[in-house]
């Protein structure tokens, strides 16, 4: 009896679409309605609970009444009478009361595993609401409607959600793909300069590790990107989202291994967000993190000084600050604690992505602290 | 631009083994060690954090010291110095402080996605610890070591975990398969009569809906099962676990549809657990729930009166109470609220499994309340 065993083996398929559109809730735009109607059981009247980012609601004053009108128009699904408007930004991931509030609403409105929670907001709100939806009834259906450049080109199209806990970024979370993503360009118009710019950091990230042509394209369109040119911004978002999606599907979607190339520049970024008490945003922190790991790639001899500096200058041309004083505090020990936390979060070996060349990332499992300190110093110099 | 979209599609594979053994942590038994050593990256020193059911620790006094000795013996992995001993039973799923405590320990001991949380306990503790492990870092590795009949033959081998929330059973949870399950017969020896018996309800459940031979086998072994005969108990657990595993793998493991045949008898069971303030255990509630839906199947004309009564008498022969006063309270309205909660939890259409014949379940989407009231009355009669 000692070696008796049964083996369990199965695969779980996932499929979702990322739509690119404008004016999602104008009556003429049937994209959202068509999706809901055609999803799953057609005979069953579906419920939709909306959660909206406060800043989005403030700057698109007609949004909630537009949603109500959109549902009234054809009565294709049951809109929950309560539309939750919640503070967006990192605070909604830091304070458990926010996801508890979403869970309360899921319960009160009887949102079940065949009903939808539709979240309209930045990456932080999407992460938090996705977490609440992911653990309620072991997962109710999530529709993401990202409203920042970063969430449209990166976080909103992926499979992860999370909240911060015990002072650690994304400590609690689940892998829970959405059932659909609607990227509506219209929302980006109310973004401030910082958030328009912030998302470009993730585009540069994915370009640097995966696609030199896209990197060159970004450099060729700096002016339009700064100005928020709609057509160029749209192309940037589409290409970046595509690279992210391809990467997730071709790799290890639920990250059972240690590899996480899409986290290029993120070990320092995550730590910086905390060290700055979330005064710098995710994209801004990622910009600095990329510069750091790019310079380290140069100091390690993988890429040339010119190439590395070119990356730093690109960020600066786009208006990013490429240094933050917290990087150097406490003789960089605070920063380096981030390496260990990053390893713990991923698990297993430390795995850091560096640049083999522009357009191609690769992984290392050790970081030379002295050299990384030099990279910090070099970055400080280049940023003066 | 209006219909531009990208489609994301991938599958996530899962695989785990359910081992049947005795004296798992005796030095000579290398099953556990072999599993850890061969799992994933062999070069990486793995951490294991244990969480143990208080009743198990109390009745197997040497357990923790045996675990320490087992790890010291060959140093195949890093045992976390703190072995959490937590209250088992439904209360650990009702009170959020328990999973918060597990998450605290996961954080403090730096358990990462390549480290293990090993839980030794009944179905309730396994569910709660599985939930804590499932949301920490989006899922650290879970090893289940079930210590009740019910958890060895049913809950412990499956893919679900959960805690209760907002007064609702399993309201929060995730689908998160374990990396391994170790069913150690030795643990069952300290079980009280109620828990030895309770697990048999799940065996009868799966037999009734899937395997008439197994059903006949149970009837032929009533005496040995009551007496806790080791060989017979082991066979019961093995066959039942096998049926559960097959069912999960052949169907819809993460329950994206509405079908849940394994929940035969459970709509009433879940409600009864609450109505009795958890004075009756899951298996005991399931026994009553099965009797109810079996009688309803008879009243609907699917099975004969004799077959239906035979099921009730089988439970009675095994020592189960087949009625509970809460079933009839408030003119059965309390009970029927459970139907709606059950639908909500599953989502979509109400889906209830009935018996087409002994050994074969099938699904209906409507319940005739008057007839169900009759089934309650009939069950009360038969139980006097
Ligand atoms: N899940 C993932 O895979 C993943 C990947 C990358 C980043 N993230 C997370 O995403 C978050 C960052 O997201 P973000 O960059 O979108 O920032 P954000 O969500 O923090 O939003 C920034 C600010 O802009 C506001 N805002 C959002 N949309 C607006 C609009 N259209 N008009 C005006 N104001 C608007 C928000 O209320 C907030 O105050 C971080 O928490 C990060 O960890 C997650
Ligand atoms: N995840 C699933 O798929 C699934 C399926 C079925 C049931 N469940 C859940 O499982 C739970 C019931 O599990 P259970 O029947 O194992 O009961 P339990 O976990 O509630 O345990 C009953 C009692 O026995 C004690 N105990 C456990 N092992 C013991 C041992 N070896 N010796 C002495 N005492 C011991 C416990 O401390 C507890 O007090 C319910 O919460 C139910 O919802 C989950
Ligand atoms: Zn990022
Ligand atoms: Zn059960």
UniProtKB/TrEMBL annotation, chains A, B:
GO MF terms here are: 3-dehydroquinate synthase activity
PANTHER family documented for this protein: 3-DEHYDROQUINATE SYNTHASE, 3-DEHYDROQUINATE SYNTHASE, CHLOROPLASTIC
Domain called 3-dehydroquinate synthase N-terminal: residue spans: 84-196
**Domain of life, per lineage:** Bacteria
Q: For the 3-dehydroquinate synthase C-terminal domain, which residue ranges apply? A: 199-327
Q: What is its EC number?
A: 4.2.3.4
Q: What is this protein called?
A: 3-dehydroquinate synthase
Whose protein is this, by species? Sandaracinomonas limnophila
Give the top-level enzyme category: lyase
- Identify which cofactors the protein needs according to its UniProt entry: NAD(+)
Q: Which CDD domains match?
A: DHQS-like
Q: Might you name a Gene Ontology BP term for this protein?
A: amino acid biosynthetic process
Tell me if Magnesium is a UniProt keyword of this record.
Answer: no
Q: Entry's InterPro entries?
A: Dehydroquinate_synthase (IPR050071), DHQS/DOIS_N (IPR030960), DHQS_C (IPR056179)
- Where are the bilayer-spanning segments? none
**Which UniProt key words apply to this protein?**
Amino-acid biosynthesis, Aromatic amino acid biosynthesis, Lyase, NAD
